[in-house]
Amino acid sequence: MGVYTFTGICAFCGKMFSFHPNKVPSLHGQPICKNCVDNGINPILKAKGQQVIVYAEDAYKPCLDEEEDRIDWGD
Prior knowledge:
The chain has 75 residues and is an alpha+beta fold. It has one domain (3-70). The chain has one helix spanning 34-47, and strands at 3-4, 6-9, 16-19, 26-27, 30-31, 63-64. The radius of gyration is 13 Å and the shape is elongated.
């Protein structure tokens, strides 16, 4: 068994980070890093009384290779 990780550029801060492609929050298909969700977007949403972004516990962790067949590759 192996693991793999996806990397991308955060839609908000522009930093590169690792994520699970089907579980990470995104904006128009571009992933959003954990720091921006937790420390930027969610506090603003909460202050406005709006629903905060909730993501899966493993959204920012490596994926098991056995999950590869369940990834939406966007084809």
